[in-house]
Structure formats: C-alpha cells, structure tokens
Amino acid sequence: MRPNFKPRLVNGPFGDPAVYLEFLRERRAFLFDLGDLRPLTNRELLKISHVFVSHTHVDHFIGFDHLLRISLGRQKQIVLFGPNGIIDNVEGKLRGYTWNLVENYVESLSIKVYQVEEKEIEVAKFSCRERFKRQHLDAVSKSDSLLLDEPSLTVCCTFVNHLIPVLAFSFEEKYHINVKKNELEKRNWPPGPWLAELKQAIYENKPDDWIIQVRSPRTPAQVLAEVPLGELRHTLVMYTAGQKISYVTDMLFEPESVQRVIELVSKSNLLYIEACFLEEDREIASEKYHLTAAQAGYIAGKAKVQNFKLFHFSPKYKGREIELIEEARDAYKKSLEK
Predict the structure, then answer these.
(1) Which of 199 and 56 is assigned the larger pLDDT?
(2) Which terminal Cβ of the chain has fewer Cβ within 10 Å, N or C?
(3) Coil, strand, or helix at residue 193?
(4) Mean pLDDT across the stretch 308-316?
C-alpha cells in the first residue's frame, strides 16, 4: 500500500512539539501543535490548511506568529482547533500587531478558530481585510470525539489532564483506495491526475453513472476514455484499511486520562507520544503532569498501536536518548503481553 500521508516531527525529540502531516497527493498538510516552525520551508508552511493545538503553553504555540507571517497576503483560510481559551489566545496574538495597511492586500488571509469544550465548540473568524477583528460564528454542538469529518478522513480528540484541559488528537483515513496496476496495463491507461479524481469521486460517494475521464498527463487535453464510476469501482480499485496517526502530549498518568487516550489512539499505525522523563524520575513527572517513557510505552501497548515515536524529552536527558527509547519499548512489550 502506497501511503497517502507522511507525518514527521518538525523538531527533534528535545525540541518544541509539532507534527507535520503532509498529504502526498494534494498540495495540503495538517499540523499538530505550533511549536518552533522554523525547520519548515515556506512552501511547506503554505500547504497547511488545518492546525490542531493541544494547549497554548509557549512551546506548543510560539509558532503561530511564524505561520501567520508566511501566510499573510495569501488567499487562503487556516482552520485551527484548540481547547478552552484558544479564541482569546489567537485574538491576543493578532491584537499585538498593527493592521492599518491590510486593506491594500490583493489577497486576504482568514483564520477560523474552533474552541473545543466538553459539550460544544465555539467558533470565531478573524479576517485580514477586517484587520483581524473577532467575528463570532454560531457554536457547534459536540456529542462525541469527532472534530473534523471529510469524505476521506476524520480527526477526533479527547481531553487529558495537565492541570489545564489539553487535547490529544487522532487522524484517521476512512479507507485506502488502491489502484490495480494490472488493470491499468490491460486497458493501456496511463496513471495520472485522473486517478486522484477517481478516488475523490469514490470518497464523495458519487453515483455509479458519474463519468470519469481518463487522460494522459503528457496530453491532458486529450480524453482517452470516458468510463462510468460504477465500472471502475468494481474493476479498477480495491479497498484496504486507511492510515491512523495519533498525537498525545502533556498529560498526567492518571486512570481517566490514560483510558481516554487508549480509546482514542487504539490500533494507530503510528502514535506520537510524549516521554518527558525516565521512570527513575516518576515523581517529578507526576508533579509536572507529564509522562515517563515507561508510561508512554504502556499506553502504546494497551492501545495496540503498530508503532510509536517519542518526543518532548526533558533536556536533562541529553545524551541519554537511548535509555528513554529502550524504557518505552520494554513497557510496550510488557503491556502487549498482558
């Protein structure tokens, strides 16, 4: 299976938290947390359509200004999700600057902010042309963990305890569409952008009589064939489970938060999870409302994730990274066996 999404830590395990999730077949990306974003190129930053903020401690939110600076003067909307207070936090950032010349911009940036609470989601919009004044939008009812529901993917969340409510996130591709290469070869059809159009039509549940035009990438104006979607559904593609990528940071190891996270990230292909301390410093981790590497490994095992990647190491462990990784792996294996 060729993946549709490529996640990576923006910074190393000792750097600010941020995971960049690139869409490989679209000019688009999601971002989980807004730590230091300087390692990302301008091109990568401009692909970001959605940002999911766990909380607004400085190491998780300092990158907002950098993303804003690169996005100004562009015709685009950034959608941002975060916990209670995020609308005020975004407004505070924007009010820190003077916007008297933005009416002259040919293209205008807007930022739509969803503030996630237990029972509802408050919504506000900040538009560059309006000097980023807060515009209140209708609140959205929240009955479960679902934040975002698109034809091909979902993003869900849950709350964990860091002395403040912090959001953990899980991104999931609903299913993965694979093209049968042998069928392409039989029909002498070249791969190309038309395959992305085919997949999007399937994700959007278009009717069987929806026509897909087969085109060559070398001569896109030439239509090689026009085929009903129903035929291609049954002959050209097959379906497999989609990718699931989860992100957990800044949480106390307590029964309620642990159970919530296990349910959220269950059977993830890849889990990004913080591991600030070694088990030898478990008391310090508890006092600071963070996880040890052993606790991170335990959660990963109980959730039966395929793979996990640690981050958010305390700087006190510089040169001891292997100890954190090995401690988490041992705990992962033990919790899988139980």
Answers:
(1) 56
(2) C
(3) helix
(4) 98
Sheet strands (E) in 275-324:
308-311
Tokens of residue 17, six digits: 């938290």
Render pLDDT for 185-205 as a digit per residue (tens, 0 to 9): 999 999 999 998 999 899 889
CB atoms within 10 A of CB 96: 8
* Cβ-proximal residues to 128 (8 Å cutoff; 6+ apart), any chain: 72, 99, 102, 105, 108, 109, 110
Residue at 228: amino acid letter: P
Nearest CA to 288 among 124, 180, 166?
166
What is the arithmetic mean of pLDDT over 252-264?
Answer: 98
Q: Nearest to residue 59, comparing CAs of 288, 320, 295, 304? A: 288
Report the alpha-carbon distance of residue 151 to residue 275 in Å, rounded.
Answer: 34
Q: Which of 73, 16, 12, 15 is nearest to 42 (CA)?
A: 73
Nearest to 150 by CA among 1, 4, 309: 4
Mean pLDDT of the chain: 95
Q: Name the residue type at position 304.
A: K
- How many other C-beta atoms are found inside a 10 Å radius of the C-beta of residue 275? 28
Name the residue among 273, 245, 55 with its Cα closest to residue 164.
55
Alpha carbon distances (Å) from 326 to 129, 303, 315, 333: 52, 19, 18, 11
CA 315 – CA 319 distance, rounded (Å): 9
**Cα distance between the two ends of the chain:** 31
Residue with tokens 């042998």: 182
Dihedral sign computed on CA atoms, order 48, 52, 56, 57: negative
How far apart are alpha carbons 332 and 328 in whole angstroms? 6
Q: How many angstroms separate the CA atoms of 78 and 63, rounded?
A: 14
Q: Which of 69, 67, 96, 95 is nearest to 79 (CA)?
A: 67
- Domain ranges, ordered by start, for the chain: 176-240
DSSP string, 36-95: --TTS-HHHHHTEEEEE-S--SHHHHTTHHHHHHHHTTSSEEEEEEESTTHHHHHHHHHH
